[in-house]
Amino acid sequence: MRKPRATAATSGPDGLAPAGDVAAIVAGTHGDSFAVLGVHEAGKGFVARCFVPNAEFVTAYTLTGKEVGDLARSNDAGFFEGRLSIRKRQPLRYHARNAGGDWWLTDPYSFGPVLGPMDDYYMAEGSHLRLFDKLGAHIIDHEGATGVHFAVWAPNARRVSVVGAFNEWDGRRHTMRDRKDTGIWELFIPDLGSGRPYKFEIIGPDGVRLPLKADPFAFESELRPATASVTAPPMAHEWGDEAHRGFWQKADPRREAISIYEVHAGSWQRRDDGTFLTWDELAARLIPYVVDTGFTHIEFLPISEHPYDPSWGYQTTGLYAPTARFGDPAGFARFVDGAHRAGVGVILDWVPAHFPVDEHGLVQFDGTALYEHADPRQGFHPDWNTAIYNFGRREVVSFLVNNALFWAEKYHVDGLRVDAVASMLYLDYSRKAGEWIPNEKGGRENLQAVSFLQKMNKELYGHHPGVMTIAEESTSWPKVSRPVHEGGLGFGFKWNMGFMHDTLEYLSKEPIYRKHHHNDITFGLVYAFSENFVLPLSHDEVVHGKGTLLHKMAGDDWQKFATLRAYYAFMWGYPGKKLLFMGQEFAQRREWSEERALDWNLLDFPPHRGVWQVVRDLNYLYRSRPSLHARDCEPEGFSWLIVDDRDNSVFAWLRTAPDGNPIAVISNFTPVPRENYRVPLPKAGEWREIVNTDAADYGGSGMGNSGMVAASGEGGGVSATVLLPPLSTIMLEFVAD
Q1: CATH architecture of structural domain 117-231
Q2: pTM score, whole prediction
Q3: How far apart, in whole angstroms, are the C-alpha atoms of residue 79 and residue 37?
Q4: C-alpha dihedral sign at 252, 256, 260, 265
Q5: What SS3 state is found at 313?
Q6: Are 140 and 231 in contact (CB under 8 A)?
Q7: Across residues 93-116, what is the average pLDDT?
Q8: In this structure, are residues 211 and 365 in contact, taking their beta carbons and an 8 Å threshold?
Q9: CATH number 2.60.40.1180 given to 636-734
Q10: What is a biological process (GO) this protein takes part in (predicted)?
């Protein structure tokens, strides 16, 4: 329902504004300032009206510098009006004076609107796919002047103003034009440039002035604890990543090697004084490290603006702004470009499931539940004390879909890992009976969230074919990574949370008990190809008292290191893309904290260096051997060799692909070496030992097969007799008949 608002009455023959309108402008309560201020017809001529607090005299000029009239002060608060010697409506500049000096300002109310009827149409329909070019703050040239165009959606507000130091945070000075049909408010402020903090002052439908709001479409923000949005210059980065993007646009990512290094940008490394690295400093250190270690992608925990460091970015207040913690937005663009030039992709954690209730953010944005549901059974998240987006509102869906497109287009990101998808899909997620509202069919599925996710994936893949989406989804929801036209959600990949849980549970058991939990390892292959999976060993496993991967392994220190090395090789040989959280590649001992850098000194110690070397070598093999990656998502690339040797805790399987030699992966998860262990193999001939996690160079005991084993067909069926080192994984690649 649209709210009533004050509008200007027609001016009298002398062109003077009615006293009630003047009083409303001065008080900041007028709902349609453009009907009063600016240039208006009066009889056969024009008058100008302006509100310039602290001025005693005001003279009007054209933008070319021609004087066109003195304006009289009709209200001591600073309201001026007077006739003009102009023949057509045009923008004006004012020369204001008082006893303390003089200053110039260009009248924003003398300019026409920037947005047009087609913008209104597509915005109202919720189908506008370039909202980020229209809403927010944009430096533009408009009707002969350069300035900033502001636009914001606040359909239930009585009045919206742009405030900042440029107008002494006075909400009366730059009240915005209400486009009425769409609920969009806009204002062009001439002479304003980049780097200027601003917020929106909003009077809600009940007449109450709200806490100042940051811009939902802000492209830059102040560094916390400050919370203002900042006018940003147009993106001017000259990209040099054509080769990288061209490759992925043509590739089928399911059949490419994808090995992801998950990074919290604020704690990977820090300066000596403990402060954050800038994007340029991160680029100089992180990109070469990732290249050297062999990962194909960096995945950042959310880098959108967020007020609270311990949220790790998952409670974002500025979805369109790279956080100011690491510098300006251009720095992030340089980082992505630098990564691409080095052959490394960049994936962002993206959070469309919920948002924090900080008063400067989206919550009760125009005095109503605008972005969130009004009913807490739908709009409040009990786990995180956050607000849940209203996926049934087309403007909210458009806001989020546009954000996904924004990161792909403006910053060339290679993918979005969508956080907390399960919390979006189920209306009763973390809720007891009576604490949730069923869907229209009486079920627990959030049909509106399903529709949103499908739309987001369709638009992102449709407009940016080289980009992938990855769902963090922990339930058995079907077809998460299947196309929308097949009834799926449309994601490219899904995190395999079952793999992470089952394998870590198994390896936390003392080796003598593992034979009783053999199915923890084998069960995963029952569903391994039901989705396009990423195998995640993520930050969630090394926080909140969970320790580190090293400490999750059973046994003494030697056994922990040996088991971790064997686990990594097991995982790199297992079907699915790979993800490892920072620090785990060198067996970080301390649990991760966002407050400090990783313990890089550990790389000076051989056991830790050995783990890093294993990961580095595994990444190289994974990328260079099609059999290890080209059929990650297809059952044709996997077959068991040994599935039921629970007494020895041995597992063996074969990885194959059309363009690669077959590779056997064999894990021994006991500290007992298995000599003369017979492994069935598909071909007779020589099989090279390309990985042995027990190698002395890695910190192991040095047991192995001298680099080669021979498979023969004697005794019915082809097999080889091998030595399985203790707590190890070996890989054998067929090389010759």
Answers
A1: Sandwich (2.60)
A2: 0.94
A3: 9
A4: negative
A5: coil
A6: no
A7: 96
A8: no
A9: yes
A10: glycogen biosynthetic process
Q: What distance lies between CA 455 and its chain's CA centroid?
A: 17
Q: Give 23-27 contacts, CB < 8 A, sequence gap 24+.
A: 23/75, 25/51, 25/79, 25/172, 26/51, 26/75, 26/77, 26/78, 26/79, 26/172, 27/172
32 catalytic? Reply is no
Q: Which of 21, 409, 419, 531 is catalytic?
A: 419
Distance CA 487, CA 474 (A): 19
Residues in the chain: 737
pLDDT, mean of residues 141-158:
97
Show the DSSP H helices in 294-362 as ranges: 329-341
Indicate the DSSP class of residue 235. P
Catalytic, 486? Answer no
CB neighbour list of residue 395: distance below 8 Å, 6 or more residues apart = 123, 126, 153, 183
Start and end residues for every CATH 2.60.40.10 domain found in the chain: 19-110, 117-231
567: nearest Cα among 517, 503, 628: 503
Helix (H) or strand (E) holding 402: helix 394-411
Q: Which residue, 540, 507, 669, 697, is CA-closest to 612?
A: 697
Nearest to 320 by CA among 357, 361, 279, 287: 361
Q: Of these residues, 21, 32, 395, 472, which one is catalytic?
A: 472
Query: What topology is assigned to 19-110 in CATH?
Result: Immunoglobulin-like (2.60.40)
* Rounded-to-integer distance, Cα 336 and Cα 728, Å: 37
**CA dist 470 to 396, 414, 415, Å?**
21, 11, 8
SS3 143: coil
The pLDDT, as a whole number, for residue 11 is 55
Mean pLDDT of 347-373: 97
Q: What are phi and psi of 58, to 5 degrees?
A: -140, 130
Per the structure block, which two tokens stand in for 153? 């959606």
Backbone region of residue 430 per phi and psi (left: phi > 0; alpha: psi in -120 to 50; beta: other values): left
Q: What is the pLDDT of residue 716?
A: 74
Cα separation, 202 vs 209, in Å, equals 6
